[in-house]
Amino acid sequence: MPKATGEKKKGKTGRPKKFGRPSKSFYLVLPDDVVMRLRLIDPDMATAIVKTVENLEVAQPPDLVEVQTLSEHLAVLWVGEIAPLHNWPGIFLHKVEPGRYLLVLDRHYDLARFELDVRDWLEASRSVGAEAAAFEKLAATLRQLRQQSQALHGAISV
Fold it and tell me: Taxonomically, which superkingdom (predicted)?
């Protein structure tokens, strides 16, 4: 019992957390048929939504940098959302799906030059966190492609 001096009662007070973890309250408008289907999952609407979402199988996002080799001299380079690449001179990003792009080099901008420019970008510390990690992976991938190209005594077109 709280004391007359205004001290608060120690220990747990109030209603327990509904889902055993932090949650937020919000207003939601749903079509009647969706409400009926959710009520079949659980009479409590919030619990029905949580159960539905927790049972969803969500596809893993693709790697931020991925190479698909088509032949000895041709490879396709896929990149994720790496903001500075959208304005990078000498490359074109063609959106394939949300967060995934086909990276195409201008015919006057070769693989070795692109790798060097990416490494310069990293040394200048122009990116931090996840973006810097994506650039590190891009640099490693470009190095691997360049080394493959040298081993084949030719050029790999990207």
Answer: Bacteria
Torsional class of 72: left (φ above 0), alpha (ψ -120 to 50), beta (otherwise): alpha
Pull the structure tokens for residue 148. 């493959």
Burial class (CB in 10 A: 0-12, 13-18, 19+), 79: buried
Higher pLDDT, 98 or 113: 113
3-state DSSP assignment of residue 36: helix
Q: Averaging pLDDT over each range in 21-25, 39-43, 61-65, 71-75, which range is the top one?
A: 39-43
Using the predicted structure, report yes or no on whether residue 106 has a pLDDT greater than 70. Answer: yes
